[in-house]
Structure prediction request, 431 residues.
Amino acid sequence: MNQAADAVDRIFRAESRPVLATLIRLLGDFDLAEDALQDAFTAALETWPKEGVPTSPGAWLTTAARRKAIDRLRHLRIVEATRSQLTLSLRLAQEVYGSQPELEVSPVSDDQLRLIFTCCHPALSREAQVALTLRTLGGLSTAEIARAFLISDATVAQRIARAKQKIARARIPYEIPDHESLAPRLDAVLNVVYLVFNEGYMATSHEHLVRGDLVADALRLARGLVTLLPGEPEAIGLLALMLLHDSRREARVSDEGNLVLLGNQDRNKWNRLQIEEGVRLIERALQMGRPGPYQIQGAIAAVHAEASTPADTDWPQIAILYEQLLRYERTPVIELNRAVAFSFAAGPVEGLSLLEGIEQAGALEQYAPFHIARADMLCRLGRHEEALECHRRALPLAPNDQVRRFIEQRLHQRPVTIASETSFVNNEKGI
Prediction:
């Protein structure tokens, strides 16, 4: 029984998001799809220990969930059911209980892509887009989203509920829009794909630093966008950026599960195939002559990836790229990254000077990487007591256990200079 339960748990993490996307397309109702999916997994816990895990778990779950959805609709009293619900029930009943083979139904590969365009419809606020996407495509719970963005559970739940209601009332189609309708949504779509990746790259609500399932989903969505929009350089730049960041996955965590910053990573563990693909993509995007923030961030990641040793890193080039990035997005986190880059390109005094302006604004007071970066600069200047104080301020702000252990190590070790990892602080999450 435990083996079957473990299998269901593994399959839930791997299959739940694509299956949910397919169910939302089929049912046209977010809540009904979520309830039906939960019913299907409950059925799997009851059935698979006796009959074994099916060859195609995703197809089994999709079929079972559609059956459960029909059962839910059939329990509605006819006098209360809407015409659309009755029509849907009859259509699904014909599809599921007809002569089709039991496991013919399987998630459509583009369903997640369709869903993200639905979640990013211009009729929804940016806050609602992000919350709904992370809930449905990222699979994060309401509490996890709230913790990630430092807002209340009630606020997140309200945003998600309102977004679902608005999609239903406005009858927003579950589809990839035509070319004319696509442009207004592209920025939002790219943004939420990157947010899903960021939650996987440095998880805020998970026992491990990296959530490989979310990273894989984000990369798959980004590849789908590039296929859909081969002439859109920002979509290509986003895919390149994520590939280059993910190429360091195996080197970012020690055998003991501790965070390893860029300057201390074993570069032999970097995925060279991903780096080569990422560099090719960023070159392809930049050659189109329409630069944008994702392309610039991808170029920064490429400079890091192509340095064979930390000493070979072209920090002046990275600092220039961050200056260019600020022309597109002037946010406190990007300003922090620029300060880190200048601390290596021009010296820690220059970096601290830039941090003073950020500190005065107060936007990153509750952001652990700000205090970690400052500690690094102070340590390089020999101001070790001040550096320790920065680490003390960072400790209660750590987003996950790995970062918390990293800070604790810095507090209990002899003062050492560390090479800051700009990608450690560039995963901004703003809702």
Remarks:
- The first helix runs from residue 2 to 27.
- The radius of gyration is 24 Å.
